[in-house]
Amino acid sequence: MDITAPNEDSKKLEGRSKAIVVCWILGFGSLVSWNSMLTIGDYYYKLFPIDLATSGKGGIGSYIGICVFVAGFGVADAHVQGGMVGDLAFMKPEFIQSFFAGLAASGALTSGLRLITKAAFDKSPNGLRKGTMLFLAISTFFEFLCIFLYSFVFGKLPIVKYYRMTAAREGSKTVASDLAAAGIQTEPADKDFKIPDRLSNKQVLFKKIDYALDLFLIYVLTLSIFPGFLYENTGKHHLGSWYPLVLIAMYNIWDLISRYIPLVEFLKMESRKGLMIAILSRFLFIPAFYFTAKYGDEGWMIMLISLLGLTNGYLTVCVMTVAPKGCTGPEANALGNLLVLFLLGGIFAGVALDWLWIIGNGSF
């Protein structure tokens, strides 16, 4: 199949709806393992009580083993997200939106599934462990489903082939490799065809540096609160051990809903300055959560965590869909990888800062 094959324009939109659905499922699957590890925090707290001796019924060896597995999930998630966002960045904006909606759905659905499995085994002997094992088994199934979809469905959709061929024509070597693996020739029919010049990765980054910083700041704020603060600083309430799970579920639900808001054109924020102002204003959540945990009740905390999820999802999709505009295929591919690097850097920094919440609450 030649890269300049006829009828490309007529085939351009074929498979668009399928691609959007597959992108959603791939987004869901790429983060379901990580969200599963986060959502069973109540199980970890029972298995590994955090105290000065760092001891518990699970044992220090098991604890270290789980930490190694968690690290492995983090590395795998970084590779998958970076690769997928780089791939989708030069395609239709709806594909990235759907992928990131799937990421949020993995949080919302795993939270719902965790509540169901916890309730199902709540009264049975060793029920917490049984519910956790069932929950992890279901999550594993979705991982294998995503492997199948990406390997045998996504790359064969006409619209995906079209955008990949366009990016390959513009000089994207990684995309050309994907096409070659699928048996598609990427050499142009016109021997005098010259691949257009592209900006270097460094030039692309500096051209779009504000978007990269946007993502870093979004996630350093979000992960400095969620989920650690919800387990350590919400105090004693009527819902007992269910309270953190309810808060996490509310965050995930609103994070998911908000990722569809930019699909309404007049609600989508595209101003670079406006995005930065909105993102910086989110740091007001830090004093808001602190004083709500100290003086407020469950209702105020649920409202705050819902707003945190709402702004997180909405601003993420706005940045991710606007940033690739004006880039060639290879530039958008590189930009997608760089944006995920900053996003995950924000997550790492946020998780590190999350420990600051436990200072002064009796844990040290």
Automatic annotation (TrEMBL):
InterPro entries: Eqnu_transpt (IPR002259). It is a multi-pass membrane protein. It comes from the Eukaryota. GO terms for molecular function: nucleoside transmembrane transporter activity. Its main location: membrane. The chain crosses the membrane at residues 21-40, 60-78, 99-121, 133-155, 211-230, 242-262, 274-293, 299-323, 335-358. Belongs to the SLC29A/ENT transporter (TC 2.A.57) family. PANTHER family: EQUILIBRATIVE NUCLEOSIDE TRANSPORTER, EQUILIBRATIVE NUCLEOTIDE TRANSPORTER 3-RELATED. This is Equilibrative nucleoside transporter. It comes from Cynara cardunculus var. scolymus (Globe artichoke). The lineage of its organism: Eukaryota, Viridiplantae, Streptophyta, Embryophyta, Tracheophyta.
